[in-house]
Amino acid sequence: AAQLDELLVDKIAEVRFAGQEETAQALEAEALFAVRQRRQALVTSLAASMQNYMALSLLQKTNKELGRACDNATTTTIGVLKTAVITSEALDRQKLVLNQIEALNTVTGDMMVANAERLKTQGLAIQKQAAEAAIPAEKLAAGLRQHHHRPRRVGCLPDRRQRLDQHHAGRDAGPDRAGSPLRGAGR
């Protein structure tokens, strides 16, 4: 377009130099004006295209940067989220353990108090039982009276002395102990 503009300017100058002013004015009005107008439109269009290209290029670069920033943010956010979840679970477990320890301490304390009360009560009962005789004296006396008043049966069982004598006699008899009432009892 610039070369065409220069060629037209040179041609108009020649035509004027040749004395054809009307032709030169017609060329300026019709051809040169149209070429310059078209040249301006092309330059404007080219500038707009350049601006569009630069804007799109800038958008492409910023989109790449934005994508990287999103990736970084996502990675960081996921890392932080994982840490938050792990921390929350650990805190929940700690709370559960603390509650269990508190319950254990409460039960242990209650058992200690109950055992102390039982030791006190049973200790008193043991001391009272130990201070008293194992069998009441009245029952012992009644039992002894019954024993002295029982009828004795004579001849019901062989006398103990008689059994011992028979046993000794059988032992002294030697290997043949056929007469011993306790045959086979000593071996």
In words, what does this structure look like?
The structure is a single chain. It is rod-shaped and about 190 Å long. It has 187 residues and is mostly helical. Helix 1 runs antiparallel to helix 2. The protein is 82% helix and 0% strand. The protein contains four helices and no strands. The C terminus is likely disordered.
Q: Indicate the structural class.
A: mainly alpha
Helix content bin: over 70%
Strand proportion: under 5%
Order of helices and strands: HHHH
Radius of gyration, in angstroms, nearest whole number: 66 Å
Number of helices: 4
Poorly predicted tracts of residues: 177-187
Morphology call: rod-shaped
End-to-end Cα distance: 146 Å
Mean pLDDT: 80
* Tally of strands: 0
Largest sheet: none
Question: Which short descriptors sum up this protein?
Answer:
mainly alpha; single chain; 187 residues; 4 helices
Short description:
The chain has 187 residues and is an all-alpha fold. It has helices at 2-17, 21-131, 137-149, 160-172. The termini are far apart.
